[in-house]
Design brief:
Elements (H helix, E strand, L loop, with lengths): L12 E7 L6 H9 L6 E8 L5 H11 L3 E6 L4 H11 L4 E4 L5 E2 L3 H10 L4 E10 L7 H12 L3 H6 L13 E3 H7 L9 H11 L3 E12 L6 H4 L5 H19 L5 E5 L3 H8 L7 E7 L8 E2 L2 E5 L11 E3 L6 H11 L8 E3 L2
Parallel strand pairs: 1-2, 1-4, 2-3, 6-8, 9-10, 9-13, 10-12, 13-14
Antiparallel strand pairs: 4-7, 5-8, 6-7, 11-12
């Protein structure tokens, strides 16, 4: 474990936390941070023009503990508030945090140690504890379970186009990444997922501490539930850009790909790649109503007709529950290697 430094005016860690109408959850969040075993940090909390008591809560905590540094800006959205927090941060490492989540006591210490002892690593996350109702939000809980299985840099990289491989409030990264690659981009897409894809596209290595370090809560007001930038179409729009860039570097038959799945949602999502010059040559499916058809000039073939590995790079866009595992098992039986011959992208 890395030892704490002697206190200076410049902390080693800055916790960058945008806040918006968070008065009900903010005290517990701040208490969890102030109870960290690692103490050499600051909390850069940016109130994004809240209409509730958020600013007063932040001022009261700042009065009690100088490590809390509150700022207030005109409401501009989470990307603007997060970038303001990054700009105001002074630490060498930046930990992201949301005002409705809880940091477990060893979170900062574990991630500081991880980055300090792995100089080639740019960003580290962790496994997270789901803080919602698993029965009422089963899909979200299963997503958390999936992210918790992605711990190594290889697993994170190969699964980046399925969905965001991190619970983003769990990440800590070197502040130099922000200075070199920019912060969060504001647009009609999830700013945190775009940030991760952009860094990975530029070769930044990412891992996770194999331990639960954050309670990822799931309130009804969470942006991923309420903001159109987090709907499925927005995720597919942003991933299409970076997936096309990945294919240009890794697909030996670039720009041609085959697509597993021929349903309307699959075709609509895969078609986003065409904007970036990717050529979809054929679809593969199991549905006898689709097999044998020609859709938009592309034949639909039975899945058993996939060519031998190396003949066509395949993308699996089938998103139904259990389909990714089934398709993975099928392709492995045909000696396809993930990342070399195919990718799951849904």
């Amino acid at each position: 474990m890395l030892h704490q430094r002697r206190k200076t005016s410049t902390p080693l860690v800055s916790v960058a936390m945008p806040c918006w109408n968070a008065e009900s959850t903010l005290p517990a969040c701040l208490d969890s941070l102030l109870a960290q075993t690692w103490t050499d940090f600051e909390i850069v909390a940016v109130d994004d023009g809240s209409k509730d008591n958020t600013s007063n809560v932040l001022r009261e905590y700042a009065r009690r503990d100088a490590r809390v540094r509150p700022f207030r800006i005109r409401h501009g959205g989470v990307a603007v508030a997060a970038n303001t927090a990054l700009e105001k941060s002074r630490g060498r490492f930046v930990a992201r945090m949301d005002a409705d989540d809880l940091a477990l006591p060893e979170r900062l210490a574990s991630q500081v140690s991880w980055l300090a002892t792995r100089p080639k690593l740019g960003l580290v996350g962790s496994r997270v504890r789901f803080g919602g109702d698993r029965d009422a939000a089963r899909g979200y809980a299963l997503y958390v379970d999936w992210t918790n299985r992605l711990v190594t840099s290889e697993a994170i990289s190969l699964n980046r186009f399925v969905e965001s491989p991190f619970a983003f409030p769990s990440v800590m990264f070197r502040r130099e990444l922000f200075l070199e690659h920019g912060g969060f981009r504001d647009g009609d897409f999830p700013e945190d997922y775009e940030f991760l894809l952009r860094l990975m596209d530029r070769g930044v290595l990412m891992e996770k501490v194999d331990a639960e370090l954050l309670v990822w809560n799931d309130p009804p007001s969470r942006l991923t539930r309420t903001d159109p930038r987090y709907d499925p179409a927005a995720f597919y729009r942003v991933k299409a850009k970076y997936l096309a860039r990945w294919l240009a570097q890794h697909n030996p038959d670039h720009p041609r790909v085959g697509v597993l799945g021929a349903g309307r949602p699959t075709r609509k999502r895969a078609e986003m790649l065409s904007e970036y010059g990717i050529e979809i040559t054929e679809y593969y499916d199991l549905d006898p109503r689709k097999v044998g058809q020609v859709i938009q000039g592309r034949p639909v073939r039975h899945r058993d007709e996939v060519p031998p590995p190396g003949r066509r790079f395949l993308l699996s866009y089938v998103a139904s529950r259990g389909a990714r595992e089934d398709i993975g098992a099928f392709l492995r039986s045909r000696r396809y290697n993930l990342g070399r011959d195919w990718l799951a992208v849904a």
